[in-house]
Amino acid sequence: MTKKTLLIIGFIFLFFFINYFPHLYGWIKTSPDKFFSGHVSWFDPWDINNYLAAIRWGQNTKHFLYENLFTTEITKPFPIYFIYTLTGIVLPSVNLALLYHGLSMITGPFLLWIIFRNILYFISNRTTAFFTLFLVCFGGGFGGLDISMTGLTFTGIWQKPHEIIALGLFLESLIGFTRLNNKTSVYKRWLLRVTLVISLILYPFKIINYAIITGSWILLSWRTSDRVTLIKEWLVSLVFSAIILFSYTNKFSQSGFFSLLLNRYEAVNFIDVLIGYGFIIPLLIIGFIINPRINKLQQWLIVWITTTLILTAFPFGWSRLYLSGLFFPLSLLTLIKLEILMKQQRLIMVIFVFILIPLSTYFIFYQRINAVNQTDNSWMYMSKKKQLGLKFIETQKADGVLANYILSNQVSKLTGKHVYLGHLIQTPKAEEKYEKLMRFYQKEMNDNEACMFLRGNKINIIVFEDSEIQKKYSQSCLSKQYENSEIVVFQVR
Q1: Residue 483, Cβ neighbours under 10 Å: how many?
Q2: What is the value of pTM for the model shown?
Q3: Of 314, 337, 370, which marks where a domain is finished?
Q4: Which of 350, 370, 390 is the last residue of a domain?
Q5: Residue 258 pLDDT
């Protein structure tokens, strides 16, 4: 077996081990009295449960269009998370977690291929290209990878199949634009347009940085014979995408998922961004010092990076989401500028690329493994008795479940039923509903008010657990249907 083959096998093993082994470890370490949620998530388990619920929807209803299960309001179904609903339709009897992680492990190599393919477009040296691939896949910072900095590197992206696909298609359409010339076939042009549209359907806001970044390539190519071709393709792609996106977002705003459009993320702190990217920032600066010459492709990468950073500073509710995928051009430009150092100081580059820059990725892996031993983590493990209660709910014809937030977030994936409040972003008016939910469970509503609250919100099943059971909550409109030492299920009469 050659050294190159061993290197490829080692990389693939490390990729799957770091990203997906914690889920397997969590399942293996599940104690007999616990039920495993199906994932060991370091960042946003509530989102993973949402995607699992979409798979369950496909399995139960055989419908491609997904109805918002995180509200009891009557809503219109919509083709959102279609990769998950389709998976559920095709494989109706397979375990949800197996399907979800299987999708990640299939789509992950797809994105790896796109990344490496495009790295070779910029870098001809295979060793430098491999270093770049490793950096893109495992690179991190000094700890900026936290709840306030979604999408800073690829660490979280590898866990979400729809993001993997969206980012892969976006990178392909963006870099593919720079390959266009007068000889490019109509077929390839339409393929790029369709690729762009699919990626923008998942993340519509990226049409702005696509327009700016590809527009900059036109300016950089202004003196070439391809100028007219690029301008025409730029206009056609944007108009084609805009028409489809307008129709899509218009329908989206009328669906049960409109609250996603209203979500506002925290503004980006530029210092957090620098900290989040860590050692790669000083390395890039060093690269420009030792190799100041910049060719056309490098100029374009600089525009890509600066455009993205500028867009994150705008007061849009989604601004920080532009950071998703930025680690690719940043890593690419860094290794291009340090190619001389790669030849002269290989050991130093190995230490930076394989040890120092990925430190936060290694630390997150450690955190995920360590979290498995914390069996009191409600996002990861549920008692078997609570699971039995949810199995009972699954058998009931009635829909519309009220439970505490963490349990509600898991009810939909385990029962396929709608919940009053299950996701702080996807549930419409989530903050208002959370306050009402707390008032109900803290007995701040009188009998009549509580019954009106339940009926008015189409809630037919109420779940009490742990301390709530001890309060002996009893309304005239409630009828006990199931009980064990950890969970009680009532039905609204």
Answers
A1: 14
A2: 0.93
A3: 370
A4: 370
A5: 84
